[in-house]
Specification:
It contains twelve helices and 19 strands. The protein has about 375 residues and is an alpha/beta fold. A hairpin with a 2-residue loop joins β1 and β2.
């Protein structure tokens, strides 16, 4: 049974312009669901969209420019409010989800049938990928495809993850950025020295993941003192570039994660990695320009460069389990620095780009 309602939403009308409006909500279509959003994070991608830096998935079959207007928000936690006729969703344990379940939806939905999907390639290669808060816009009814709204519609192939009871919304909302840290699972070995460039939310999540994977030492850099202090609370040491090389006897780090979100730090990441080391690049998701790199550096140092185009589904469940088991031993609650109401969405996005904030969320 579906009910026609109105839903309050923060709509990105154009670069640098957000308006809070009421939208018609006809209820879920057959096979769909509606999420009552409890908290939605402001991602680095959302900041790019707000600034008009809109080219996403460059060089893949899913390359596209963001189509304004849209409702952003793909880092979400909420409660299943309604299920459309015939809708059936399972959680990470294979249990059928009923209305009232608190869940984190995966940020993307693949078609499951294109060449890339059939080969099991990373989801963002899908030729008909649907991205909540990105490629799904107001041009597709009912428009409520992002978490910056009271109600968010979910497509039939959506993957949903049940949130453990003990994990509060302010921590569960970090599930998606934590899932983007899967590059460290491949690159890091116990006892490794890790450098994280940029301690915004994504960088902090990489610090957390490195610590949980048993990194020997974690060094970080960031422009903002508040973010450096947060990284230190998770066990990282703040050093300058020169100090980083000194700390490793000039060799460099085993793993460098470039999480700054700007192109200019990529050459620095290559310089800081030791011979035979790995550079993980998850921060340059949106095309914000190029930087000069001499490929000879990669060759002569035998570096491995691991590009992370997004999260992988198994990493969502892993992130929620890690949160649940370390909630009392790690300062997870410190990562979200501000929670603002929907009516202050533009203020929230602007705040998220300043030294005063780490992770900013909207509470619809």
């Amino acid at each position: 049974m579906t009910t026609s309602l109105r839903a309050r939403a923060a709509v990105v009308k154009a670069p640098h312009r957000i308006e809070v409006v009421d939208l018609d909500d006809p209820g879920p279509a057959p096979g769909h669901a509606v999420l009552a959003v409890r908290l939605s994070g402001i991602c680095g991608t959302d900041k790019h969209t707000f600034r008009g830096e809109s080219l996403q998935y460059a060089g893949t079959p899913h390359e596209h420019d963001v189509d304004y207007p849209l409702i952003c928000g793909h880092e979400n936690v909420g409660v299943l409010a309604e299920l459309g006729d015939g809708a059936r969703f399972l959680d990470q344990h294979g249990t059928v989800l009923e209305p009232g379940a608190r869940v984190v939806p995966a940020a993307n939905v693949t078609c499951g049938t294109c060449w890339w999907c059939r080969r099991g390639e990373p989801y963002f290669m899908c030729e008909r990928l649907s991205d909540y808060g990105n490629s799904l816009t107001l041009s597709r009814a009912p428009g409520l495809w992002g978490g910056w709204a009271e109600r968010m519609h979910l497509l039939p192939r959506s993957t949903l993850f049940r949130v453990p009871d003990a994990v509060p919304d302010e921590v569960a909302v970090l599930t998606e950025p934590m899932a983007v840290t899967h590059g460290l699972d491949e690159a890091l070995h116990g006892g490794d020295t890790v450098v994280v460039l940029g301690c915004g939310p994504l960088g902090i999540c990489h610090v957390v993941k490195a610590a949980l994977l048993g990194a020997g030492r974690i060094f970080v850099t960031d422009l903002y003192e508040s973010r450096r202090s947060l990284a230190a609370a998770f066990g990282a040491t703040v050093l300058s570039e020169a100090e980083l090389l000194d700390a490793t006897d000039g060799r460099g780090a085993d793993v460098v994660a470039d999480c700054s979100g700007v192109a200019d730090t990529f050459p620095q990441a290559l310089a800081l990695a030791r011979v035979g080391g790995t550079v993980v690049e998850p921060g340059a998701f949106v095309d914000v320009g190029t930087t000069a790199v001499n490929p000879n550096v990669i060759v002569t140092k035998s570096l491995r460069v691991l590009g992370v185009g997004g999260e992988i589904l198994p990493a969502y469940a892993q992130a929620l389990e890690l949160m649940d088991t370390t909630l009392d031993t790690l300062p997870w609650r410190q990562i979200v620095s501000h929670v603002l109401p929907l009516e202050r969405a533009q203020e929230a996005v602007e705040l998220s780009q300043t030294a005063a904030a780490t992770k900013v969320c909207l509470r619809p």
